[in-house]
Amino acid sequence: MRHDRRAWLWASVVFLALFVYDGPVRGLLPGAALPALPGGLNGLTTLLVAFSVSHAAYALGLRRTAVFFAISAVVSWLFEQAGVSTGAVYGPYHYTDVLGPKLGDVPLLIPGAWFMMIYPGYVIAGLLVDGRPYGTRGSWANVVWLAAVGAAVMTAWDVVVDPILSGPAFRAWIWEQGGPYFGVPLRNYAGWLVTTFVVYLLYRAWERGSAAPAGQLADRGSMAAWLPLVAYGAMLVSNLVSGGPPELAVIGPFVMGVPLLAAAARLSASGTRST
Prior knowledge:
mainly alpha
């Protein structure tokens, strides 16, 4: 069993290393003419989805990962489909063909892309609220607070990525009536908070009643527990170097960097206590 878990861990390391190379490293060294991995934006997204799934399998176990991914995929697709169809969730928008084939009006890649960052957000929220990366304990009020903090961490990412991917460089989706934040309607961020809060609340409520995740004790302060934080930070850098409003170079490190650094401090402190 431990050998199987280690295989998932090493798979996550490989996926994250490939993402860091093709995203932040190539973006920061444009003059080095480093070869790009195939797939472009969709390939880069798939790498980080694979990281989150494999690291979750290592830390939480396959059963919890399957439940977490299923909740994330189903809830996000339902909200997205309702959003595209009615404009009521995030504001009026529609997807272009950039992200590939669709299920209904939503690209098949999107439900996985939500989990891609929902999992690092889960780890960061756990550190910020409870000082541990995995698992859900305590009162129902604590479950709700964990879900709310996770939703805020996730929405902070969209503050950075949405103006980029809906902007002229990618046009992955189009805001039909625009909006005051680099063309993005403010309702979008309320929609993100609600969507991710529902995902986290459903999973953490289920997780609270299950046994402790496989990696909860072993990884309290281990190097493996740092990987989701690295992924969250690497996504920030990758977004900032991919082309977008220059103001995001200030906004991004604040909205994403503050919770990331706070979570890193909690993880570092837990590692110190465990040694």
